[in-house]
Amino acid sequence: MKQTNKIALVVAYFGRFPNYYPLWVKSCSYNPTIDFWIFTDQIIEDLPANVKCVKMTLLEMKNRATKVLGFNATLSRPYKCCDYRPIYGLMFADYLQNYDYWGHCDIDLIFGDLQKFFDRYNLYSYDKFGMLGHLSLFKNNENVNKAYLIPNGHMDYHDVFTNEKNMVFDELPGISTIMKESGFKVFMRRIFIDIATMYHRYRIIDVYPLDEKPINYKQQTFYWDRGKSYHVYLKDGNICKDEYLYIHFQKRPNYQVSLSLLSAESFFITNAGFVKGTLDTMKKEDFQKLNPYFGKVYETIENIVNSCKRRIQGYLKRKLNKQ
């Protein structure tokens, strides 16, 4: 018999929401077995039944963290909230205490059928499901909720929560590795689409040290259809699709979203924004319109240039912090 547990995902977001935010909410609405809790200083209206909004300032969130930690938490920038994600189960215990699993997620993504994948990969046998910040779930018990306290050779929680810098404590180098090395059962397979930021064209990141390497095709695009997320590609002259947990289009511009998209049952996710359409009427030549491919040499050069830019920016940022 399939087991269904109560699941909640938490978003702490301060400041103006991006224009594509309504599409994120739309994808949440297609996951009725999961509750989404948004803690924000913004006013949000007309939400689906499974999306809850709690008005909260960044200072109030800082005070919640301080109460849990027992020392003064450092939280002066919204982005620093990411480091606090592993203790959301304690910080928001008054909202999450009745759930079997709580988690955190980003909003620069479009969800697919979450419950389907949680069931397929047996979420309920894991203490932590997912290893990256854009979506992870934790079993809601004391041992898991206090795993951040475990002494380890990676990150010290006191340093994380008293440092102004972002320490990526919610990611693979932080709580995921700490829990895995401490004997917790952690699901670390890549069952999602993570779009690379090194390229103008939409490509899947293929450098994570996880499981099998994903395949990028010359002709490919990404697609959402009535609550399901897909990688769509041309292979041997045929249009194929693979279903995934969600599509994460990180660090992209604030795409404009037309009103017609909000009522659409399907759309393509592209580097130029969201394009209303259906796979049923898609033609082979549409790949080049939705996600143009200019050749391997072009993408190799683009990758090198962007890598150099990031290294220079990182060097300048480190030098500035030392002054």
Topology (SSEs and partners):
Elements: E1 7-13, H1 21-29, E2 34-40, E3 51-55, H2 58-69, H3 81-84, H4 88-91, H5 93-96, E4 101-105, E5 109-111, H6 114-120, E6 128-132, E7 135-139, H7 142-145, H8 157-162, H9 172-181, E8 186-187, E9 193-194, E10 220-225, E11 228-235, E12 238-244, E13 246-248, H10 259-262, E14 266-270, E15 273-276, H11 286-290, H12 296-322
Parallel strand pairs: 1-2, 1-4, 2-3, 6-8, 9-13
Antiparallel strand pairs: 4-7, 5-13, 6-7, 10-11, 10-14, 11-12, 14-15
Going across the biggest sheet, name each strand in turn: 3-2-1-4-7-6-8
Largest sheet: 7 strands, mixed
Please trace the helix and strand order, writing H or E for each element.
EHEEHHHHEEHEEHHHEEEEEEHEEHH
Distance between the termini: 61 Å
Q: What is the helix fraction of residues, given as a range?
A: 25-40%
Describe this structure in words.
The chain is of the alpha/beta class and 323 residues long. Helix content is 30%, strand content 23%. The chain is built from 12 helices and 15 strands. Strands 3-2-1-4-7-6-8 form a 7-stranded mixed sheet. A 5-stranded antiparallel sheet has the order 12-11-10-14-15.
